[in-house]
Amino acid sequence: MTILLIEDEEATARRLRRMVQDVEPTAVVVGTTVSVEESVEWLQTHPKPDLVLMDIELADGQSFEIFNRVAVTSPVIFTTAYDEYAIKAFRVNSIDYLLKPVKEDDLRNALGKLQRMREALLEQPDGLKASLASLLQKMAASAEGNSASPTANAGQVYRDRFLVKQGQRLFSVSLDEVAYFFSRNKLSFLKTRDEHEWMVDYTMDELSAMLNPKRFFRLNRQIIAELRAIDKVNLYFNGKLKVGLRPVFDEEVIVSREKAGEFKSWLGE
């Protein structure tokens, strides 16, 4: 078994490598990366490993961003000190989710789970091939930035207001006041229709899961816009779309060719 280890704490990485050798002596750690950027580059330039051990909090951001940048078709076991990320981890098809400090028994159980899954797939006609194809499709969908589906999930409860801070004062902003959410320098903000900007304590991925997809659409990794904030849409090169927002956003807002069809369908609902 070949393993890519994504971990930005050197001491933790050393401990995990030793633990892997104790639990699975035939396993080989073929690479160790410490950041989103380095991990994306490694995955683009090396044969895919049999398993990825992936820390969630890295030096340059959360490792979920890796799935937005490159197709990850290897099974993933996430490690983190924070259990709040469990649901998001399983949205990107992880095999297991281990809390730090990782215990040897937990790692052994996770590797055993992976092995059982492989054996079950191989017992079916073309099982492994079909599974990898399905996993690739799911990862590609995840790579769209976990954008909101144009159809709301039955029973899903969505946010209708956000708490923001102004100096020492906290107050609530209703979604009826929000034109769009945007990210800048790894921070997230909301912009109201009357052009006030407030920082919000959520990532763009987390916001996507909180917002009603009938009202909000993730145009790209940087912008989630409310329907009424779409001022104009123009054709752009290579099948992309250029979107004008109201209030005006200070950078070009481009919808990728892959998302253009979904966006047009959302506009026409």
Descriptive terms for the model:
single chain, 269 residues, alpha/beta, Rossmann fold, OB fold (Dihydrolipoamide Acetyltransferase, E2P), 2 domains, 5-stranded antiparallel β-sheet, 17 strands, 30% strand
Q: Report the span from N to C terminus.
A: 48 Å
The total of helices stands at 8
What is the CATH architecture assignment of the largest domain?
Answer: 3-Layer(aba) Sandwich
The unreliable regions are 123-151
CATH homologous superfamily of the largest domain?
Answer: Response regulator
- Strand count: 17
Structure characterization notes:
Keywords: Phosphoprotein. This is LytR/AlgR family response regulator transcription factor. InterPro entries: CheY-like_superfamily, LytR-like, LytTR_DNA-bd_dom, Sig_transdc_resp-reg_receiver. It holds the Pfam family LytTR. It comes from Larkinella bovis. By secondary structure, the chain is an alpha/beta fold. The chain folds into two domains: about 140 residues, Response regulator (Rossmann fold, 3-Layer(aba) Sandwich); about 110 residues, LytTr DNA-binding domain (OB fold (Dihydrolipoamide Acetyltransferase, E2P), Beta Barrel). Helix 4 links the parallel strand 6 and strand 7. Helix 1 crosses helix 5. The longest helix is centred in the middle third of the chain and has 19 residues. The protein is elongated, with a radius of gyration of 21 Å.
